[in-house]
Amino acid sequence: GAAAAPLPEEDCMKLNPSFVGIALSSLLAIDLWASKRLGVCAGEGSAWGSARPLMKVIEVSGHGIPWLLGTFYGLCQSDSSAAREVLLNLLFALLLDLVMVAVVKGLVKRPRPTHNKMDMFVTISVDKYSFPSGHATRAALVCHFVLRHLVLAVPLRVLVVLWALIVSISRVMLGRHNMTDVLFGLLLGYALYGVVEHCWLSPATAPALFALW
């Protein structure tokens, strides 16, 4: 009989996936499975549904709006030049965090987990996307910033680290994010801190900004 027509190249690729493709697909499947299993506070009927109100309080503690408003208020009330410098850079860090997370979410457009209950505090359009976790990014950024620029006793430093970890873990427990969203968010927050340190605003580098205060 007549020889069979050759398969299109894209079908051949599907029938013979690369090792990298198989590995990524497997990791994605594991990520989705583990994230769903760990979403123990995703709804009132979940395994740890009674802890959901506490998780939502933790969620608010890592939200961008309270941090922005609190930093701006402190900046306006401060009468110390050193404190104003630190707070101005913290404000810059928080704004940079919001912009970068929004850009990455808009590019990746990964949907939130299917078991997520969309009842978050003050959301914007990009919040329908999951990757990366803005709370995890902000927690890592603020934690590193506070430990670096504030003089704190050891117990308080431990509390700051614990807060960042709990905020990050709560994102998966509430079903807001997958594990990889949180892990990448922590890495991004650490990287953004490096950017803030490199572009540190001071009276010498940004005199116009400090003149406003």
From TrEMBL:
Transmembrane segment boundaries: 15-34, 87-108, 150-170, 190-212
Superkingdom of the organism of origin: Eukaryota
Gene Ontology MF annotations: sphingosine-1-phosphate phosphatase activity
Positions in coiled-coil regions: none
Keywords: Endoplasmic reticulum, Hydrolase, Lipid metabolism, Membrane, Nucleus, Transmembrane, Transmembrane helix
Places the protein is found: Endoplasmic reticulum membrane; Nucleus inner membrane
Main subcellular localisation: endoplasmic reticulum
This protein's name: Polyisoprenoid diphosphate/phosphate phosphohydrolase PLPP6
Organism expressing this protein natively: Struthidea cinerea
Organismal lineage: Eukaryota, Metazoa, Chordata, Craniata, Vertebrata
